[in-house]
Amino acid sequence: EESAEPSDTDQDTTNAHASFPTAGSWQAIWSPQHNTYYFYNSETKETTWVNPLQPATSESEPSSSSTSQSGPSTTIDSHYAALQANAMAQGIDPSLAHLDPSLASSSGVPSNFMYTAKFNARTGAFAKSDSRDPTHLSEYERAKRMSEFYFDVGAWERDVEARNKAEIEAEAEGEGKKRKRPTKKDLERFKEQKRLKKIAKTAWLRT
């Protein structure tokens, strides 16, 4: 008599056709954002990326395989696990957690997953990172573009910056140009020169 229970061969064939097995309270849920399955326990409300139905690997596997699996993937898995936990705490379906930006920010997203983009406010299409922004029409930018038609604005700005830096360094070292105050003799000499100059202008009236 043939047994009603599936044989080991049948089980292997079934597992080969199924993406991930499900049994009891564990459910395999596909995450389109991560392109993989995660597992949710309907009784304990637990979520995990590790297949709880998969038998433990034998200890004969080389240690290099375990080393290769650890690293960046561990950090990513922990982040997504925190994301799923936050979704469950707020009563949100874990498979839709990636659609809520507030969950992504509260779960501690690594900085390398953050990015910024520009888009056209009229068409809604994404723009290049080096495309023009509103500052392109500012008074300074317009004056700079007009001036660049006649001379090198960048070289002039660098020259001014270099001179200012040199003056600051000279003043700090005590070598700056200090204005010399005129003495009493200098003041008397200036007055005499001014008087003689005035007489010379009106000399033709006395001839």
Automatic annotation (TrEMBL):
Q: Where is the composition biased (Acidic residues)?
A: 1-11
Q: Which CDD domains match?
A: WW
Domain annotation WW: ranges? 20-54
Q: Which parts of the sequence are annotated with region: Disordered?
A: 1-25, 50-78, 168-192
The name this protein goes by in its record: WW domain-containing protein
Compositional bias, Polar residues, is annotated for 12-25
Q: Which SUPFAM superfamilies match?
A: WW domain
Name the PROSITE patterns for this protein.
Answer: WW_DOMAIN_1 (PS01159), WW_DOMAIN_2 (PS50020)
The beginning of the lineage is:
Eukaryota, Fungi, Dikarya, Basidiomycota, Agaricomycotina
Q: Entry's Pfam families?
A: WW (PF00397)
User: Low complexity bias: where?
Assistant: 57-75
